[in-house]
Each structure stands twice: as C-alpha cells, then as structure tokens.
Amino acid sequence: MIPRLKPASSTPFALLRIGTAIVLLLKDAVEFPVLLQLYGPAGFIQWSIGELSLTPFHPRLSWIVDAAHQASIDPDIAIFATFGIYALAAALLLFGRWARACAILLWLLHWMFEDSAGFNVYGLDMFVNIALFYCALGPLDRRFVLARRVDDPPTETNALWLFLLRFHLCVAYFVAGFAKSAGDQWRSGEAIWRAVMMPQFTTGIDWSWLSSMPVLATIASCGTLVIEMGYPVFMNLRRTRPVWLILTAMLHVGIGVTLGLWLFASIMIVLSVSAYGSEYVEVILARFRRAVPPANRVRYASSEARTP
Amino acid sequence: MRTVKTRLVAAFVVLQCLLILLGSEDSEGSSRLAHAPAALTYYAELSGALGNYRFFSPNVADPVVADIELSRAGKRRWHIEIGRGATELDFRQSTAMIYLAGIGLPNLQSRIVAAWALGLHRECDTAYVKLGHRVTPTMAAYRAGRRPYNEFYYEAEYKRRSRPAPLP
C-alpha cells in the first residue's frame, strides 16, 4: 500500500516549466553561433563516429537531415530549422502556451540534439533531460500562464509527482556527494584547487592565490560534500529546508562563478527551487502583490477576475 | 478513495523511484541496469533515471588537451588549443576529449581532432596534432614554484589527400 500524500498545488511544476524554458532559451542563445560545430554532420565529432554508440531506436538529427535531403533541402538549413523549432517550443513553454505539447516536443528534440552531439554532452544535458521529463509528463499548471489563468485545487497526483521529483534530486545529490567523499582530493581541498585551475574552466579570474590559503579550499570542498550528502535529509526537514536551499543555490552560483558553468548551475537551481522552494516563492509573490499599489495591478486584477 | 488516475500515478511513481535507484551509477561507474532488457534501459535513459551523477569524483583528473598546428605548403597558419577557454564549445569539446581519452584510442582521438581542424580551416593542408594532459601541481607544489604544464602522450601529422569541397 502506498500511503496517502497531502494534496499539493501545481506551483512547483509551474516554476519548473518557467525555469526550464528560460534555461533552454539561454542555452539556445549560447549554442546558436556554434550550432553546426556542436551538432552538425561535420561537427567536432562527426556523425559517422558519434552515431556508432547509438541503437537504431535513438532519435537523431540525421533522420531529419535525411528527410530534408529527399526534399532537396540543405542539411545545414534543416539543422537550423530544427533548432528554431526547439527555441520556439521553449518560448511557448515559458508562457504556458500549448505547454504539454511543447514540453513533449522539446523532450524529443533535446534527445535528438544530445544523441547527435556525439560525446560532448555533459551534466547540463542530463539535468535538462530530467527537467523536460517532468515538464512533459508531470502536472500542468494553469495559473502562471499568459492566457486563461485557472487556480486548480491541490491534488494528490501533484503531490505524487512532487515526491518523485524530490526523490530524483535527493538520489542525484547524494550519489554526487558520496562518490566525491571517496576521493582524498575532496577531503584535503585539492579537488577545488584543481577544478578552478583547469584551463577549460578559465573565467578570467586568477585563482592561483588559493594555493597560499589551502584552508579555504578545504572548507569549500568539505562544504560541497556536506551540502550534497546532506541534501536528502536537510531538504526534507521543514526547519532546515530554507537554509539548505540557500546553501545549494550558493553552491551552484559558486560553480557558475568559478568554473563558468552558468547553464549547468542555472538548471540545478531551477530543479531545487521547483522541488523545494515553491512555498517560499508563493510568499514572495504574495508580498509583491501587497507591495504593488492596486493602480499598478490593473492588468493582473483583470486577469484574476477571469479566474473561476 | 483514490481515483484510478491517482492509483496509476502512484504505481508509476513507485516504479520510477526504483528505476532511479537502480539507474544511478555506482562508484565503479556502472549502472545496475546495465544488464536489464534494452527497452527498460532505453526508457530509463529517456526519463533521466539512468544517470551518472559522479561529477569530479572520486578525484578531479588532469584534463585532456590537444594542441593543433595547421599549415599550408609547410608554412604554419593556425594554432588551436582544445581544452582551454570557457565558452560552451570549449566545455563540450573538453568533455568529448575526456570521453575519447577514456576509450584509450589516441589514434582515433587525434584523427577526430585533425578532421575537425582541417574542416574548420579549409585553406590548410596539414594538421600536426599533439594530445596530452594538463598537469596541475598540488597547492603545496605550486607554493614551492611548480606551475601547470602540458604533458603530451601522442603526436601525429595528418595531410589532406584531396582538395576540400568548396563551401556552399
């Protein structure tokens, strides 16, 4: 028997939808100038090599390019057009327009791009895939959308999906922390030093001064282990949740600042805030509504008036 | 009473949780779903249940770098370094380099790098590729004066056999 869960609102999934769409649009903007180098047939990893590791059932861009070839369409144009559809679907997802269809389309297209990228996918792609899975199959909110806003009542289905999302994140964070804890570099602080000194993570900040303050590196690496391994416990305790949410967000902001992995950091923050921070976002929104004078809220009020 | 929909979602959630637990890679880097039926692995991959969350673990390895010199008729034209820089392309190329180095086929890896570089600079006819690791000294060694350096383990020269096709 599965115990009954307290009904939950769909706000976490609204945050997930909006946050994921913003990250996808940013990702699109970053990848657009180098699109063919990343995903093109003669990109860094040529399709003939990258596709060797795929089963015949893995969706890939070559399917679209082959179909376009039949219609005498240039392969590059076909790839750019697919990317354009991906960006358009992300924009529609942001505004909640045809959200389910867009999320499913994005999920499929994301997988296509990932499979065609050969071996150059990293954590960002994996967590975007996870976010899109929940956007595509999870509850749909009708409150934070542009048109026809509806305040749906909390349901147990929402609670079950929220439980699943939280469980997924708890496993991911705990496994990440536990795997690191086995390494002596993470206990001594050398891991942080080596990460910030990697040439691929050069962000313009010179971190060489860290070598003269090794205690800072030790605090940062041990702090990372505590935050990641403590995630399943302290995120699920109501008292410690706000603190742990802030610590987790700080960890990811740190990754963005030191390693330049802003997109990865953003999707991780979106996932954690969606899963555990919706009640705080609701409080902030309520305060904002009270703070803004009614005269400035005419549009919002009129759209609220349509809510049944 | 639970509705049929809620019961179905509850059953799905239980199964998905199980899949997430089994799909997370262990310390050896293998998932417990490795020997599961292909359809289940495929679904786990699609749903994100099959995940390698072991970033930078157990230790942070020396990154893989590639140094490419492109020339035409013996005259050096371009110098490209892969594994340096902080753009999205750099991250992804570095990730691919680490993956390819893990396969342990430097011959294939250098060919991939050379093909990409010659495709990017179509006016060049020769690519000299060096593959290596960026060795970072410990904090103590850095304080003592040691500095990061590239340790190359593979070098190869590639020449075009034919003229590249004109760009559209």
Please tell me how large the radius of gyration of chain A is. 22 Å
Count of alpha/pi helices of chain A: 15
Shape of chain A: globular
**SSE order of chain A:** HHHHHHHHHHHHHHH
- Please outline the major beta sheet of chain B: 4 strands, antiparallel
Envelope shape of chain B: elongated
Quaternary status of these chains?
Answer: heterodimer
- The overall average pLDDT of chain A, rounded, is 89
**Share of helix among residues of chain B?**
25-40%
Overall structural class of chain B, as computed from helix and strand content, comes to alpha+beta
Q: Residue ranges of chain B: pLDDT <50 for 5 or more in a row?
A: none
Largest sheet of chain A: none
Describe the structure.
The complex is a heterodimer of chains A (308) and B (168). With 308 residues, chain A is mainly α. Chain A has 15 helices and no strands. Chain A has helices at 11-31, 35-39, 47-50, 61-70, 75-95, 99-116, 123-137, 156-181, 184-188, 190-197, 214-234, 241-259, 262-276, 278-291, 298-305. In chain A, helix 11 crosses helix 12 (241-259). Chain A is globular and about 60 Å long. The two termini of chain A are 36 Å apart. In chain A, 44% of the residues are buried. The model of chain A is unreliable at 298-308 (pLDDT under 50). Chain B is α+β, with helices and mostly antiparallel strands and 168 residues long. Helices cover 39% and strands 23% of the residues of chain B. Chain B is built from 5 helices and 4 strands. Chain B has helices at 4-23, 38-46, 88-103, 106-120, 139-143; strands spanning 64-72, 75-82, 126-135, 149-159. A 4-stranded antiparallel β-sheet of chain B has the order 2-1-3-4, with helices on one face. In chain B, a hairpin with a 2-residue loop joins strand 1 and strand 2. Chain B is elongated and about 80 Å long. The N and C termini of chain B lie far apart (65 Å). Chains A and B meet through helix 1, helix 7, helix 8, helix 9 and helix 10 of A and helix 1, helix 2, helix 3, helix 4 and helix 5 of B.
